[in-house]
Amino acid sequence: MENILPYAVSVVTALISGICAFIAAKKQSDMALEAVKEANRHDMDKLLRQHEVDIENLKEKHRLEVERMEIEHQHRMELDTAAAQNKATGEIVASLFSSAMTSPYMTAMMEERMKKEVEGGIS
């Protein structure tokens, strides 16, 4: 037993040292893992905030695009209305002029007026 006692002390000391080293390494790796998790958590929060900002920007861009399209549509409608009014007015004036020119009274009055102009210009 005396032969084994020095070896037993060395083995027990090595076991205690190994267990302490394992516990220290385990604690250090747990701390490093927690630090990585915390860094990832911050990165994820940052990405989520950026994503929310991007979504808000897209919503604003879409809102402005819809607003622009509505304004363009309103403008196009106003132009179409004005064009229709101009066409209707032109047709009415043309119809009035046409009916006035087919009237014998108006034709006679125009001939008389033209004669006066020609006579007045020649003299």
Q: Which short descriptors sum up this protein?
A:
123 residues; 95% helix
Task: Describe the 3D structure.
The chain is an all-alpha fold and 123 residues long. The chain is 95% helix and 0% strand. The longest helix is centred in the middle third of the chain and has 98 residues, at 5-102.
Give the helix tally.
2
Order of helices and strands: HH
- Could you give the distance between the termini? 161 Å
The gross shape turns out to be rod-shaped
The SS-based structural class is mainly alpha
The averaged pLDDT comes out at: 90
Total number of β-strand segments?
0
Radius of gyration: 50 Å
Q: Main sheet, how many strands, which sense, barrel?
A: none
Task: Please state roughly what percent of the residues sit in beta strands, choosing from under 5%, 5-15%, 15-25%, 25-35%, 35-45% or over 45%.
Answer: under 5%
How helical, in percent, are the residues?
over 70%
List segments where confidence is low: pLDDT < 50 over at least 5 consecutive residues: none
Task: Give a short overview.
The protein is about 95% helix and about 0% strand. The mean pLDDT is about 90.
Chain-wise SSE layout:
Layout: H1 5-102, H2 104-122
